[in-house]
Design brief:
By secondary structure, the protein is of the alpha+beta class. The chain has one domain: monomeric porin ompg (Porin), CATH 2.40.160. The strands form four sheets. The chain has a twelve-stranded antiparallel beta barrel with strand order 3-4-5-7-8-11-12-14-15-18-19-20. The longest helix is centred in the N-terminal third of the chain and has 53 residues. The chain is elongated, with a radius of gyration of 40 Å.
Length: about 375
């Protein structure tokens, strides 16, 4: 049989193709074996991880009563809040002002200081060398007060307050001697003020148009000084006080109103007049950590009686405009700063207050 001349070349090409095909098949088989091995290893790893997860779930104890997020009621709905939101500066400020009560089991210890300055100018007649003239008597008073206030949250939406103040008063009286000279008399006093107790109870909860309503009664035991030398301090009288606080929210604003009545017990022949007060305030939450406030306090003071006889001109009206700011400086600590401006002549010209309430749990 005669074969073509190119047959040897073709046969060589066929042998090469057969070798390439055989190598490719072997390589493919090896790749398939390696891939199957990798898949088996992956499945084993997945099974091992699943077994570890099941083991951890079996070992992990499940609490009988898992904690639920706290809920706070506003005027329209119930919503969940975290611990930080519940501690925001506005809520702490409302507690400090008495418009909101502490939850049961919590307490607050407040350290406060205030400075009040007053200056009164009274015209008097003076004579010199037979001539009559008019001079001015100046009475300056610097009143520095510190206080410790303890608040305790009680069951049934109630709260107990205990307040102990300490006062340092410096006073100077400048009296004209003649037309060109005057005499100054300086006096000072430092004493513990009247210890007082208060019990408050939430009467109504805010809902729809209805505001929060808190009732409070307080007792001043009158352990302080009434006078020191020739300087009147004003403490030392037992007093009973009742208060009704109203709170209404319009986020981020809160409006409060406080109506108070204070009766002072008779001491000897001296019977101070009763006092009726009304305070209106607006508070703005500028952030979860800070708030601003503005308010007006108006007090009507009844007639004083001595031996049952009314003292003419002893009934008074007192008005103060208050501006304040608060800020959270720690998880449990609030810094409150306020300034009061006297609107009537019988109150200090201005008052500066600084308070540092610290909140903590009673049973933890």
């Amino acid at each position: 049989m005669n074969r073509p001349r190119y047959w040897p070349v073709a046969r060589c090409v066929l042998h090469v193709l057969c070798l390439l095909l055989a190598g490719s098949a072997a390589a493919y088989a090896d790749d398939q074996s390696a891939l199957a091995l990798q898949l088996r290893q992956r499945d084993q790893q997945i099974q091992a991880l699943q077994e570890k997860i099941r083991q951890l779930e079996r070992d992990q104890p499940v609490p009988a009563n898992p904690p639920q997020p706290a809920t706070v009621t506003n005027a329209s709905a119930m919503f969940a809040v975290d611990a930080l939101a519940a501690e925001r500066a506005l809520e702490r400020t409302l507690t400090q002002s008495g418009a909101l009560l502490l939850p049961a089991g919590q307490a607050e210890l407040q350290f406060g200081a205030s400075y009040a300055h007053s200056e009164q100018h009274t015209p008097v007649l003076i004579t010199q060398d037979g001539e009559l003239g008019v001079g001015t008597t100046v009475l300056r008073r610097h009143d520095v007060s510190t206080s410790v206030v303890a608040r305790f949250g009680l069951p049934n939406d109630a709260q107990l307050d205990v307040t102990l103040p300490y006062r340092v008063i410096r006073q100077s009286l400048i009296e004209p001697v003649d037309f060109s000279s005057a005499h100054e008399t300086r006096t000072s006093s430092a004493s513990v003020g009247d210890l007082s107790f208060g019990l408050a109870k939430t009467l109504l909860r805010e809902q729809d148009w209805r505001p929060d309503l808190i009732g409070r009664v307080g007792l001043n035991i009158g352990n302080g000084k009434e006078t020191s030398g020739n300087m009147r301090i004003g403490d030392g009288f037992r007093k009973i006080r009742s208060e009704l606080a109203v709170l209404k929210r319009h986020d981020p604003m809160v409006w409060t109103a406080n109506l108070t009545y204070e009766s002072t017990f008779k001491k000897g022949a001296f019977q101070p007049g009763a006092q009726v007060g009304l305070s209106l305030a607006a508070l703005l939450a500028t952030s979860p950590e800070s708030s601003l406030s503005v308010g007006v306090d108006q007090t009507l003071i009844g007639t004083t009686r001595i031996h049952g006889v009314s003292v003419a001109g002893s009934d008074q009206r007192a008005g103060v405009l208050t501006l304040g700011a608060t800020s959270l400086i720690g998880k449990n600590t609030l810094l409150s700063v306020s300034a009061g401006i006297g609107l009537t002549r019988n109150v200090p010209d201005y008052v500066i207050n600084v308070a540092l309430p610290i909140r903590f749990d009673l049973f933890n």
